[in-house]
Structures are given as structure tokens and as C-alpha cells.
Amino acid sequence: MKKIFLLLFLIPIVSNAQLKDLLKKAEEQLTSITNKDSGLDIAAGLKEALNKGVDVQVSKLTATDGFYKNQAVKILMPEELQKVDKALRKMGMSKLADDGIKALNRAAEDAVKESTPIFVDAIKNITITDAKNILLGNQDAATNYLQGSTRNPLYAKFNPVVQKSIGKVGADVIWNNIIKKYNSLPLVSKVNPDINDYVTNKALDGVFKMIAVEEVNIRTNIKSRTSDLLMKVFALQDKK
């Protein structure tokens, strides 16, 4: 900004051509400063929106039945184990099958509670350039960006948390019993699923889905823009 004032101070002692050149440079610097400040605001606003998604929506997943009674994210029997579910119910072991599904969801609920800081840390890495593209993108652009750029590292951090939670809520015992019962049935192909991997991916799917819910809410509902920054940043989106 000091450079701009200096340029303007020198105006009286320069030629018309020089004056035009100086004014052009001053305009470019002002534009650069404005864009920089705007970019910082956009990045900060999107980070706030994603953090709000974690606070408002993802926190709901950590409650008892947060996954189990939310049909949008409820974890069901793995596709490759649908035959297990059918076989158990056919043999009068419906309760065991139901307990298995509930145990998977309990593990996810516990794991998300333990690892919420992981998602918060990941949000901090959104750049100004990315932020501008995200703001003018689809209604879930921020969530998709977060998922695309952080899914693999999040999986690496989240997986051991899920494994711990599976043991904590007793899901490992229940599922070992289910697999043992099924494999003991006559004329069935034995199974040995990686429940830890399955719950990890499903829990991550649920987290990103709920963050997207809040992002869409903020983008489309002005009342959900609960801070001056959110109002300012997403007003830019409304004008596109």
C-alpha cells in the first residue's frame, strides 16, 4: 500500500505516458490486494462451513444410534455377506444377524467420536486457489474436495481407531461368532471378511455425507449462515 501512495505522490512531476503507466501499476496493486483479501476470506469461509458441518452434522453420528437409526448412513451387512445374513435368518438366528449389524454401527459411532479432530485438521489445508474454485462449484464441492484430497490419509489414521472401537463395543466378538456359526453350516462356502476395513470405509462415507448435508444447507439457506464471514463469502456464490 505504501508503494501505491508513493506512486500517486510522484504524479505531478511525470509525463502523461508515465502517469498512465503509474496509474496502471497502482490499479494492478490495488486489485492484487483486494483479490488476496477476498481469497483469504473465501478460504476462511469454506473452512468455517466445513467445520460447521463437523460440529452440527457429524457430531450427531457420535451419539448412540447416530449411525444405526440414520437411514442415510446406517451400516448394513457387507454385500459379500448378504448370503450370511439370509442363511442365519433362515436357520432361526435373526437376532444374531441383527446384533451383528448393530455392532458395526456402534463401532462406527464410537470411532467417529474419537477421530473428529482428524477431520478438523484436514480442513485446515484448503488453499486460497482451491477455495475460489470450490465456492463457485457444485453444492457439495467443498465436501468432495475434502474427500478427494484427504480420504487416503484419513483412512490410514481412522482405521486403527475403528479397530479399537470394534473391540471396545464388542463387535469383534459378535462378528467372530457370526462367521463361526455361518462357516459351520453344511454346504456353504466359508467366509472371512475384513470387518475393520468395511467399517472404516462406511464410517468415512457417513462422515462425508453428513458434512455435505450441512454444506448444501449453508449454500442454499441464508439462515444457516450463522456468522458474518459465512454471510459475506457465500453471498459471492449467490451472485454467480
From TrEMBL:
Q: Which residues form the signal peptide?
A: 1-17
What keywords were assigned to this record?
A: Signal
Spell out the InterPro entries in the cross-references. Answer: DUF4197 (IPR025245)
A Pfam family assignment: DUF4197
- What this protein is called in its record is DUF4197 domain-containing protein
